[in-house]
Write a structure and sequence with these properties.
Length: 438
């Protein structure tokens, strides 16, 4: 069977030819008009980015190279002895558009495990951070510092040919994905369990299996399977979300994958994006405290209105693109339904009840375009159930995951020779001049 590098080397010329033909045949075709409301409305709805790994349908949700989440759950190889999708099989699919065999998946796991240890200066850097520094800040800084290792930056300095850029972007991306669990686990242990040993990486275990061991939850099989699913599902959500878009933008200046992904993490750290899972849990626990563990639908409704009347958003609800419930939310709810240990969990039951009431309240409130739950409505609550209760850490786990999609696209950006990103901006006076003329 073919290795990941051999598989990609075969696909790259095909994709390059596809792009060339697209440009030659349809370069002048229009994908829609730009309205003033798009420009002042966060570019919502504008089709202005090329992104290979996944496409988001407003109603159906995410498809990874055309595969829906339930499809992926059927065809992507799980871990040895596990049932859920793993990071390696999702990464293979994102990078190549193909479903890996079990052997290919295991080979990738082995490669990632072999490259998972951190250079000493990175360990020292993380150890020097104050424990009160937000874990996402720690992660972003450590990822940026890893650019000391960048093969892409070194190759650029040597003056390698443009056509070879993608091979170095791939090496850096695989190296970063391999090291993220050790980085993220060290931040967790330092921040919450200082001075305790961190488990070593096992050569024959999958990336997330090793991550969970290093976090200190090696005997928690439910948590291992949950994080495998979580990390695979959060891997990519097409290109326009803040984290993915940032990596692509920064990478377009030929900043190396470490710098590009570091920038991306600082966007993920915002409360309307990746920090929402931490916010949901904080909000859920406050609600649980206020209405008790067996709160009724009416009590939840009242609490939702209190939040909205206080001028706050309901965290975990709404979406920039999706207009129906997020299939990632559905997949996590299905996970809750089949795991016996989650059936009687008060926090999981509260998530479920809230998802039955909140859409009606948000519809009546009348502001949000999508009153349905997104993936964050439940993701942090599951972590809390499994004993990882330090909610400031939750976005770091998202950060380990989003690397799969954001770095995949960086490889394709370089393989396809995409240029530096430089959209045109306008001032309000300039817009007025244009619209008043027409
Ligand atoms: N609760 C209350 N109001 C909301 C909500 C919500 N959950 N979602 C949107 N709105 C409001 C929004 O603030 C805006 O109000 P205003 O006109 O006063 O500025 C109005 O509804 C229209 O917003 P939309 O066009 O529906 O949403 P937009 O695309 O601007 O923003 C989110 C999308 C996800 C930022 C927004 O729905 C939100 O703030 N949700 C809560 C935070 C959250 O769950 N974020 C996680 C996103 C998923 N992720 O994985 O990153
Ligand atoms: C994501 O996974 O990035 C979020 O759902 C936000 C988005 O897609 O805009």
């Amino acid at each position: 069977t073919k290795s990941l590098r051999e598989t990609l080397a075969e696909i790259v010329p095909q994709k390059q030819a596809q792009l060339k033909e697209l440009k030659a045949k349809h370069g002048e075709a229009s994908l829609g008009e730009i309205k003033v409301e798009n420009l002042i409305g966060g570019m919502r709805g504008l089709k202005v980015m090329l992104w290979e790994g996944s496409v988001l349908d407003p109603n159906e949700g995410i498809r990874f190279h055309g595969h829906s989440i339930p499809d992926c759950q059927k065809v992507l190889p799980p871990a040895k002895g596990g049932k859920e999708i793993i990071a390696e099989s999702m990464l293979w699919l994102l990078l190549t558009g193909k479903i890996p065999t079990e052997e290919q998946t295991r080979e990738l796991s082995k490669e990632l495990a072999a490259n998972g240890n951190l250079p000493q200066y990175i360990e020292k850097l993380i150890d020097s951070f104050p424990r009160t520094l937000h874990p996402m800040t720690q992660l972003g800084m450590a990822v940026a510092a890893l650019n000391h290792e960048s093969k892409f930056a070194a190759a650029y300095e040597r003056g390698v040919k443009k056509t070879e850029y993608w091979t170095y972007a791939l090496e850096d991306s695989l190296s970063l994905i391999a090291k993220l669990p050790a980085l993220a686990a060290r931040i967790y242990r330092n921040t919450y369990y200082p001075g305790k040993d961190i488990a070593p990486i096992k050569a024959d275990q999958d990336l997330v299996g090793n991550y969970v061991d290093m976090l200190g939850y090696s005997s928690n099989e439910g948590m291992k399977e949950y994080l495998r699913l979580y990390i695979a599902l959060h891997g990519d959500h097409e290109g326009g979300n803040v984290s993915a878009h940032t990596a692509h933008l920064v990478g377009s200046a030929l900043s190396d994958p470490f710098l590009s992904y570091s920038a991306s993490l600082f966007g993920l750290a915002g409360p309307l994006h990746g920090l929402a899972n931490q916010e949901v849990l904080r909000w859920m626990l406050a609600m649980q405290e206020a209405i008790g563990p067996d709160g009724t639908h009416d009590q939840i409704k009242e609490y939702l209105w209190k939040t909205l009347k206080g001028g706050q958003v309901i965290p975990g609800y709404g979406h920039g693109v999706l207009r129906d419930p997020d299939p990632r939310f559905t997949a996590l709810q299905n996970f809750c339904d089949v795991r016996p240990e989650l059936k009687d969990s008060p926090i999981i039951q509260l998530v479920k009840k809230t998802s039955e009431v909140a859409p009606g309240v948000l519809r009546e409130h009348g502001k949000t375009r999508n009153p349905n739950p997104n993936v964050d409505a439940t993701s942090g609550c599951l972590l809390h159930h499994y004993g990882l209760t330090e909610f400031k850490y939750y976005t770091v786990i998202f950060g380990v995951s989003r690397a799969l999609g954001a770095l995949t696209q960086l490889v394709w950006d370089r393989a396809l020779g995409l240029p530096i990103e430089r959209p045109k901006s306008l001032s309000m006076d300039a817009i007025e001049k244009i619209v008043n003329k027409s």
